[in-house]
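In response to reviewer comment 3 from the previous cycle, which asked for concrete evidence that the modeling workflow produces usable outputs, we include below a single protein chain processed end to end. The sequence was submitted unchanged, and the resulting structure tokens are shown without manual editing.
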Amino acid sequence: MPIRLDTRTSAIVAATIREWVRSVHPSSAAGSVPADHVQRIFGHVIDDLLELAGSEPFPVQAARRVGRRLAESPFDRTRMLAPASRALLGLSPGDPGSLIATRWPFIASQAIDAYAEALQQRALAQQERSLSEAVSVRVQEIAALQTRLRHDATHDALTDLANRSLLQERVRVMATDPVRGVGLMLIDLDDFKQINDGYGHSVGDEVLVTIAQRLRSTCPPETVIARYGGDEFVVALPARRNALAELAMRVLTALCEPVHTASGPVPASASVGTAYCPPGRDCDFSDLLRSADRAMYSAKTAGKRQFAVSELDAEEVDPARRDTRFAAVAG
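The workflow returned the following structure tokens.
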């Protein structure tokens, strides 16, 4: 049951609580917690400690539990160690020489020590969380940087298409497909030098970026599209032979539309050479590319704006259809 205090001690306790409230409440992080509520909490803390001071055996752990309550809500974000120490250690309850008066400094010291320990543990926990968050952010930044560096190492800076190294790696993977062969298209823009000379290199870059976008929207998802040179693009995909010719015609149609630039519409067209490696055959990227390159130059020689099948492919198709070796886009 609560300890009965004499009038003098009650007045001292009440004055201590009021001073404690004035020291803490104006800057309390509890914000909207009313002062009378804070006063009641402080009153309960002192009452509990006074009761412990008059109890047996010596209640060290109980006093420390009371002290740790000062680190809890609504004071969990309040700097209150100094005001609490002044309030509790400066209190002199009971008559001089009484049990309460004798024990109070030890009880109050245990409560303050536990309160300070709780604050220290909380600060360490916050520091660990902050450190963990900082490490997590740094790890994410490093991972993002590594991803970006890997991307930059395998993609063209202007068009963001694959570069030569990524293209060759993807073709090697495609060649392991036991059902589908590897189709390759070498695309060369017609008269691109005239665009650079007539409109400027910035407009030429706009054309290249637009061509890259058109290739992305035209080709199937499994396709790898690479910028292989200044105005040369290579498209590779796992495919069956007839699908490659159909895709080449769609690409020609998409690329032979004017490109709208900051300087107005710029005429565009392309010549395409295709090469095909059937499934089950050793697929050498260099040989496949040379075959597509020869076919592309055949398309250029035949008048541009068309695609041609490589010599190797032409020998493998139905002899009755060898005259369909070229296909052109009207216009």
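The chain has two domains: 7-127, 164-328. We consider this sufficient to address the reviewer's concern, and the full set will be provided in the supplementary archive.
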